[in-house]
Design goal:
This protein is α+β, with helices and mostly antiparallel strands. It has two domains: 79 residues; 71 residues, no CATH class. The strands form three sheets. A six-stranded mixed β-sheet has the order 1-6-5-4-3-2, with helices on one face. Strands 7-8-9 form a three-stranded antiparallel β-sheet. The protein is elongated. The model has no long low-confidence stretch (mean pLDDT 92).
């Protein structure tokens, strides 16, 4: 079966509940109760969004969120934001290494969090756009949107671990 792509105003996407959407193409084809997922969750935040049914089967792909009608784009963005909730680190308060495990205390947009990082070389990734992704020992993810904009103390603590 050929892949079905959504570009521009070819389909109307409506928010159903939590992180599910319904898709109706203007030729009459309908899909209900689909879950948007990023095909490239780190590098392609707004491009190539797959829409999966309850069985995890791909029904269609959105090429680029920015080409969708505003209502459709908002519905998909809400679902993706809910599914890919990644707290943003605003500042790093303290770091401490003990027995090879890095303990980080950070202020996030959701409050103060303390977490362990097992392997700083594989669990702390600096991306090309100055973002830093951190995965803790419980597989929770955190993001520093732009490490160059951190305060001086936070930069010092972060750069010592890179």
């Amino acid at each position: 079966m050929a892949r079905l792509y959504i570009s521009g105003d070819e389909a109307k996407i409506t928010l159903k509940e939590h992180y599910r959407v319904d898709v109706e193409f203007y030729n009459g084809v309908k899909f209900e109760d689909l879950e948007p997922r990023r095909l490239f969750p780190i590098s392609g935040l707004r491009k190539y969004i797959t829409l999966l049914d309850k069985d995890g089967i791909e029904k269609c792909i959105i090429r680029d969120l920015d080409t969708l009608m505003p209502e459709s784009r908002e519905a998909d963005e809400k679902c993706l934001d809910e599914y890919y909730l990644v707290p943003k680190i605003l500042r790093i308060i303290d770091t401490e290494e003990k027995y090879g495990i890095l303990k980080m205390k950070c202020e996030t947009e959701r409050g103060i969090r303390t977490f362990d990082v097992r392997n700083r070389y594989s669990d702390i990734k600096v991306l090309y756009d100055n973002r830093v992704l951190i995965r803790d020992s419980d597989d929770n993810r955190y993001e520093i949107p732009d490490h160059t904009r951190l305060d001086k103390h936070s930069k010092k603590l972060l750069y010592a671990e890179l």
